[in-house]
Amino acid sequence: MITKGWLLPIALTMVLITEVSSQDCGQLLARLRQANKANLELLNSKMNSTIPQQCIEGVFSFSLKNKLPTNRDVSEEENAKVAIQEVLQQTGHIFRQNCTEMLWDEDSLRAFHAGLDQQSENLKSCLSASPRSRRIQLTSLRVKRYFRSLNDFLKEKEYNRCAWEIIQIQVKQCFLWIEKLIQEIQSKGMDAQIPAHI
Ligand SMILES: *[C@@H]1O[C@H](CO)[C@@H](O)[C@H](O)[C@H]1NC(C)=O
Ligand SMILES: *[C@@H]1O[C@H](CO)[C@@H](O)[C@H](O)[C@H]1NC(C)=O
């Protein structure tokens, strides 16, 4: 079994690699996908493999009540990119809340933030400058609303351990969702310049 101590340096290295950014929007998705994997690994390395007994009920009731937009809601490329950018930015905000009960060390938290901020900025700089369609505005709103529910929940639970467990599970789902969205865009061949080796 690979221990958690092992994964961390790998995840950090990947975060650093992706920080070496050029404004090359053609390879944006490939880089984003790689960085998203690093985020996911870092998050996984910090999460307990089992949900603490006292948190289980909360996990289920939270997941039922609060949902991300579906893939169908964000089927166009620009729309998906806006959704991803919003998720990254909002995740950064949420991980700047009171984290004392979350049991992350400072270095990991800093690396996590750096990765999120960098990807969010890269993505933002590659988004179209033209006014957003209603559909895209709606996507952005839905993601914001979802994260507002995470924020409210944390606050309501006074940033306790279980609340953070639940938030981390949700954020993991978000990263998996990002992976799916990128895969979908790529499979439609809309990001044609991705080098084959990535
Ligand atoms: C996992 O849960 C156990 C028992 O609650 C706790 O002692 C341990 O610190 C947790 N590990 C992490 C990485 O949260
Ligand atoms: C952060 O959360 C912990 C645990 O709930 C609490 O004891 C502490 O007072 C909080 N700190 C701030 C600055 O809100």
Largest β-sheet summary: none
The radius of gyration computed from the alpha-carbon positions, rounded to a whole number of angstroms, is 17 Å
Number of structural units classed as domains: 1
Shape: globular
Instruction: Indicate the mean pLDDT.
Output: 82
Bound small molecules, deduplicated: 2-acetamido-2-deoxy-beta-D-glucopyranose
- The fold-level CATH name is Growth Hormone, Chain: A
Poorly predicted sequence stretches spanning 5 or more consecutive residues? 16-22, 190-198
Q: Which structural category fits the helices and strands?
A: mainly alpha
Helix segment count? 7
CATH architectural designation? Up-down Bundle
First and last CA, distance: 26 Å
Helical fraction = 55-70%
Outline the structure in words.
The chain has helices spanning 4-19, 28-46, 56-65, 77-94, 106-126, 134-156, 161-187. By secondary structure, the chain is mostly helical. The chain has a single domain, classed as Growth Hormone, Chain: A (Up-down Bundle), CATH 1.20.1250.10. Helix 1 (4-19) runs parallel beside helix 5, helix 2 (28-46) packs antiparallel against helix 5 and helix 4 (77-94) packs parallel to helix 6. The protein is globular and about 45 Å long. Mean pLDDT is 82; it is low at 16-22 and 190-198. One 2-acetamido-2-deoxy-beta-D-glucopyranose is lined by residues 98, 100-101, 158-160. One 2-acetamido-2-deoxy-beta-D-glucopyranose (NAG) binds next to loops. Keywords: Antiviral defense, Cytokine, Disulfide bond, Secreted, Signal.
